[in-house]
Prior knowledge:
By secondary structure, the chain is α/β, with parallel strands linked by helices. The protein has helices spanning 19-30, 51-64, 70-78, 87-101, 138-156, 192-203, 247-264, 299-311, 347-362, 376-389, 401-411, and strands spanning 105-108, 133-136, 164-171, 179-181, 217-225, 227-234, 269-275, 279-281, 317-324, 330-332, 338-340, 366-371, 392-395. 37% of the residues lie in helices and 17% in strands. Helix 10 (376-389) links the parallel strand 12 and strand 13. The longest helix has 19 residues, at 138-156.
Amino acid sequence: MKYIKYSKYVADPLNDLSAEDLLQLLQDFLLESGFNEQSYNFYQMDPERTMENLHQALLEALRQQGMVPQELLNELLENAKNFKDSQLSQLIDKLLERLAEEGYVTIEQPHANQGQVDRPTTGNAMGPEGQAKFELTDKALDFLGYKTLKDLLASLGKSSFGRHDTRELATGIEAHGSSRPYEFGDTMNLDVNATLLSAIERQGLRVPIDLDYKDLQVRQCEYQSSCATVLMLDCSHSMILYGEDRFTPAKKVALALKHMIRTQYPGDTLHLVLFHDSAEEMPLSELARVKVGPYYTNTREGLRLAQRILSRQKKDMRQIVMITDGKPSALTLEDGRIYKNAFGLDPLVVSETLHEVARCRRNGILINTFMLASDYGLINFVQKVTEICRGKAYFTTPYTLGQYLLMDYMQKKVKHIH
């Protein structure tokens, strides 16, 4: 006789977690800037981005949030040596598989030894030498930017926002100005009342009304411009010193700004420049992996690179958004050598940097500076930059940086926030 055995259903305690929930739990680990490490190597592809470390990071995040059932924790404590075979380890493996299946991470398998066959590797299955690694996808970076932007807008009390308004008038969709005669090339935002009235004034009131080309009237709206932005991030060593991580919040703001521009300002462009002992343009897709390292701040070289990038952009508005916590302390000489002086405000470094600021103003490039420190030398330097380029200076903290930066980008109002 055939028997059917029934057992009590045991629900997966972590089954309700979506891939987006997992990314939010892991964001501090994924955007790590070197604050928690003993050694700092600038722009080094992190050798520790293995699936094993991702596994441990997720376990720690779940434990800190109190999301791991107590019986699984007890099992872990009783048999810590065989953690890989525990139920908790298997649950975390499934969660990491979910991240890979939904396209948030890609997994790079280790090369199999001769005679071995490559198998799909996720979670705790680490391959021949335990060196399977993962990479964040653009989808994951975009989601992290979206979550950061959503959190920032919630604190601002903003529900929606449009493009950059100016004082000019043009034909468009939203009418805020008076009507005028249609000209070739205008958006056909027809003012029906004014058009009919023009035809009646020309030929009198009769039916049918005979419309002529010169009767066409179009509504005027506020002209909305496009903007090219270069985000300059200071990634010198001081950004993670003094017991505070200032670089990770800056990275999150950059991802949020990228998402906002892609979804709300499709005509705008955003480029990223990192400045330290020197400066280089960085693809936004690589931002999550960048760490701090060099000790000096070559602001002038960052401004020069930003100007070269903006010179290629045919936009109505061009601006540099600079996030820094230190005064200029390095300068690239004509022969390529880097002159460094971290003690006080070096007259040569400051004068050459301010000359570059003046060049930005002559080229019609606005500079807005976000200060993450209250050092007297930095304040003095930023005040001179603001005076020369007629930009804005924001004296802020890592916790309010995103709010001020987004308000500045959306409103474009001249003001100082102290």
